Structures are given as C-alpha cells and as structure tokens.
Amino acid sequence: MTETVDYDDLLTRYEPALGLETHVELNTNTKMFCGCPNEFGGEPNTHVCPVCLGLPGSLPVINGKAVESAIRIGLALNCEIAEWCRMARKNYFYPDMTKNFQTSQYDEPIAFDGWVDVEVDGETYRVEIERAHMEEDAGKATHVGGAGRIQGAEYSLIDYNRAGVPLIEIVTRPILGAGEKAPQVARAYVAHLRDLLKSLGVSDVRMEQGSLRCDANVSIDPIGAGKLGTRTETKNVNSLRSIERAIRYEMSRQAAVLDAGGAVVQETRHFHEADGTTSSGRPKSDAEDYRYFAEPDLMPIAPSREWVEELRATLPEPPAVHRRRLQGDWGFSDIDFSGIVNAGALTLVEETVAAGATPTAARKWWVSDLARRANEGGIDLDELGITPAQVAAVQALVDEGKINDKLARQVIDGVLAGEGEPAEVVDKRGLAVVSDEGALGAAVDDAIAANPDIAERIRGGKVQAAGALIGQVMKAMRGQADAGKVRELILEKLA
C-alpha cells in the first residue's frame, strides 16, 4: 500500500506548485486537417480517411473554423495572439497515433501570455496562461481486462475515429502560493475554463466524454526552499471533483516519499476514480525530449489584426462581470452567491432560472438537495441525471400546487431513477397533492376527534395550535394533502 501523509500535516512543512494542461476538443463539423465528421461515438474506425490516418500521399488542409475558435479562446484568456505561427510535427511512437507524429504547435503557439482570475472561498487567485496552442487529437485506446485502464489490461483495441479531432491545449504557468487551497484553486480554474468555453460556443466541454480533460502537474518542496520540486503528471482526470482529489492525493503521496528520505520520480500517473489514488504510469518526458520540426505540408498561419479585433468583438461577457451581474439580478448576498459558486452550481442555477424557476428556488434545489445527493454519490453536480429544465419543471409543479416540497423530493428521486419527466413521475407514483374536500374533510374530522384538547384551544382563539392538527392530517395522508386547504377546513370546523 502506498504511504501518504495527512494533508494538514504536510502543509506545515511543504508548499505545492501546480501546472495544469487542459485539452479542449472543438465542436467543428469536421476534423482539424480533413473533411471527416467531427462527431463523438460512431462505430470504431468509421470516421477516418487517408489524411487523418496519415497514409502516404495524403495532404492536410487546416480547418479555418478551428483557427477562429483558437483565437477566440486565446482572447477570452487575455492572451496575445500571434501575428505569425505554424504547425509542427511532434514525433512520438504510440499505437493511438498512426502517423508516428502529432501535428501540433511547439515554439510558436497561436496564443500566449494570458491570465484568468478564479475565486475560492471569497479569495481571488490569478492563474497565468503560458500558451494556448492548436493540435490534433490522437486515436483512443480501449483497454480490455482489468479495470478498463492500461494497468492490468489483457490487451488494447484502437479506435481512430478521434484521430485528427481539433484540439486546443491550454497550459498554465506554475501556480504558486495557493497553499492548502491548491486543489480547490485547480478545480475552480478548470470549472472557469469549462464555463468560459461553453459560453464561447467552441466546445460541448463534456468531461465524461473527454471533450475537456485535464492533466495535473504537481510538485511540493520544503517551505522557503525557493525552488520547484520534482513534478508528476496525473493524466486525463475527467471530472472537477477528481481534479481536486487527485492533487490532494499526489501532495500527500509525495510528502511521504520526501519524509522517508526518498526522491519523487518524474513520471506520468494514472488516477483511480474508485479510491482517489494515483499509480505510476511511465517516465515523464519534458517538451525538449521530443523531436519537433516544422510541418512541411501546411502553410503558416498569419491572422490579420483586423480579423483578431473582429473576433474580439464576438466574445461573451467576461466571467467575473457575468457573476457580478447575476448576483445583482438575483439579489443574493455575498454568502449565498458564494455558496452557489463553491458548489459548482452557477451555470446550473442560471439555466434553471432561464427555464422558468425563480433564483431562490433554483438555488434551493441545486445547492441543498441536489448538492447533497451529488456528494453522497461522489460525483459532480452536473453528472446527476437531472437537467436544469427538469428542476424548473419540478418547481413549476410546486408553484401550481400540484405537489409540495416533500413530494417534490420524491419526484426528483423518480427523475434520477430514469422514470421520465417530472409530470410523468407524479402520475406514475401517484404523488399529486389531494385537494378534494371530501377526503380532506374526513381526515380533518379524524384529527379533531383524536385531539380534543388541541381542538378546544383553537376554539378558544389560539389558531396557531392548528399546526399540530395539520401535521396529523398530513401524516395520515402521507404528505399529499394541500396544507393550506387543511388549515382552512380546520378553522372552519372549529369556528
């Protein structure tokens, strides 16, 4: 079993440094250098052609829409946009790359020197962007046997449908000074990227499908050492929650190695979702360990300053400005709004409000009930099997008096269980509130008869005592009574 050190304990001796490499699959219609469809899924090895397979005699042509998306992403990250850049061949040998090289950008990225600000627990952290460059995705390996990962697999199958899909790789400079909040800062940064890229409309940013994936470089060094420790790179972490867990674990593991007098090995590591641990992959190469040379089959890219400014004008509202506007529009206090942001629920609440719910109702469901369910399941909020539109539909049923909050939670149970839309769940489970005066009147009569003392107090003018009888009626009717109607009937009968 791998030794680890208590997280709070390691922070007394070590400080972390992070570097995040985020790969974004663009949602262009076609691939980066050919006309093959850029679609997720499909039968293996059907979205392929001689170009994306790198067959002899085939010639690539760069996707103009991908270049446009790259520039817009760079601008949204406050980057400089290169006046001239080109593609390069990054030579490596792996079964998922048919050409034995990846067409990428090396020393001439299209976007560089940017930054974003993220907020964690009311404190702002600036994450500097070193570069955002264009490249193509590799094929996808399916590991058969074991846990479906390369370690323990009996053999692997390769699907080249993903080969050639347009990618933007966003690389940060070392993130220093975050201390104990380092894992949360990393999570907040990737969440910021996800929301930003979605607002730009350049990617569906579905982490579970790999269209947004993060490699987390982690190192620790003694406090005050003034130098960066040896880093590891945890590959392809596919959820916000997992990013935070992977970094915390790596910090704890590296601290145990150093405490024992050992040396951290520079390597890639695999993250294990089940228990939040990482395991050794392969020795980690630096950029200079690869052989690069300029791609001879593609022309250089020289975006005009006029075009860049035209694209700058298409950018959506900056995230920080967007958040401030939403808080003002919704009327939430700083504490309440921070709760939404920290829960990773901002976009979900916004979409629920857009679907017709009030901000207060949307916050109630996502930040309390649904956040609890996500935590219990060990998943991110947006991985729950319920959409903002469905949450808004649940609240609409409450507003219409068809169900109450207690019944609404049962409706959510049904939606999460795959029983259909909220209205269907109400019908299937028989959850509608009973408003029929006959049924309610009988239940009220029973409650009055069973509680004569309370009935006398109400007759004596202490109407607040009606709450006890209402509770009795609600219990008798399994929570499906119209509480307002029950109160009305009690006061009427005891007048």
Short description:
This protein has 495 residues and is an alpha+beta fold. The protein has helices at 7-10, 64-76, 182-200, 240-259, 305-312, 319-330, 334-342, 346-354, 359-377, 388-399, 405-416, 422-429, 437-450, 452-459, 466-476, 483-493; strands at 14-25, 80-81, 88-91, 101-104, 111-120, 123-136, 140-144, 155-159, 166-172, 212-222, 232-237, 267-272, 277-283, 291-294. The strands form three sheets. Strands 2-5-6-9-1-10-11-12-13 form a nine-stranded mixed sheet. Strands 4-3-14 form a three-stranded antiparallel sheet, with no helix packed on it. Strands 7-8 form a two-stranded antiparallel sheet.
Secondary-structure map with pairings?
Elements: H1 7-10, E1 14-25, H2 64-76, E2 80-81, E3 88-91, E4 101-104, E5 111-120, E6 123-136, E7 140-144, E8 155-159, E9 166-172, H3 182-200, E10 212-222, E11 232-237, H4 240-259, E12 267-272, E13 277-283, E14 291-294, H5 305-312, H6 319-330, H7 334-342, H8 346-354, H9 359-377, H10 388-399, H11 405-416, H12 422-429, H13 437-450, H14 452-459, H15 466-476, H16 483-493
Parallel strand pairs: 11-12
Antiparallel strand pairs: 1-9, 1-10, 2-5, 3-4, 3-14, 5-6, 6-9, 7-8, 10-11, 12-13
